[in-house]
Amino acid sequence: MDKVLYLAMSGARETMRSQQAHASNLANATTTGFKSDFAQARAMQVYGEGHASRVYAMAERPGTNLSTGTLIQTGRELDVAIGGEGWIAVMDANGKEAYTRSGELQVNQFNQLVTGGGRAVMGNGGIPITLAPFEKLDISGDGTITIRPLGEGAAELAVLDRIKLVKDQDGSLFKGTDGLMHTGNNQPLPLANDVQLRAGYLESSNVNSVTELTSIIELSKQFEMQVKMMKNAEENSSAAAKILQLQ
């Protein structure tokens, strides 16, 4: 009886975790450059003293869907999208290099170029990009940033830096809890000269809202079934106890 109860209990718990993953995807359906997470479940044996005769369910995130979202034209000079493969290097909360495809760039109060989430964008030398006061800014296809300094004539242009663009060479990138992509060994990826930016565009999320909503509904039904199994296990245990009392 405990086998059924434990399996149903662990299944209900992991179903809730899977629902959280799909709910997170659905909540980010309109987030620029967001990459949806896969979710799956599998049976795992419980090892300990004696034979591994108990099995529990385990939900896991096997990976991230890295397919490209739709490019949306905005015309804003600080909006950039990567055409094809590649990532924009940014600084995470721990000061380490991480990667994103969210190209809704801004200039913060410290004149640093940051993403919409406030992450500092890394330059060609692997340090955050700081901009001088400017009247006009242009980001070329290779990430080079050119400005017309404040108060200068139209012909006075200055090249400030170049956005660091990289490629995942060996498939080692994974999504962290901060929503950014990280390398397994925390080593920065090298600059990739064949990654191209498109200024005035943003990449939409690759989340399929219909698929995610359908998955949430299916998981809800599975949760109800597992709760019913736990109730049945309890009723069977009570019935068995009554039979023993009659003997």
Structure description:
The chain is an alpha+beta fold and 247 residues long. It folds into 2 domains: 2-65 and 206-246, no CATH class; 71-203, no CATH class. It has 2 helices and 16 strands. The protein has helices spanning 2-27, 209-246, and strands at 40-46, 54-60, 71-73, 80-83, 87-91, 97-100, 106-107, 113-114, 134-139, 144-149, 158-162, 165-166, 174-175, 181-182, 196-199, 201-203. It has a 3-stranded antiparallel beta sheet with strand order 6-5-12, with no helix packed on it. It has a 3-stranded antiparallel beta sheet with strand order 9-10-11, with no helix packed on it. A hairpin with a 5-residue loop joins strand 13 and strand 14. The chain is elongated. The mean pLDDT is 86.
Q: What distinguishing features does this structure have?
A:
247 residues; 2 domains; three-stranded antiparallel β-sheet; alpha+beta; single chain; 2 helices
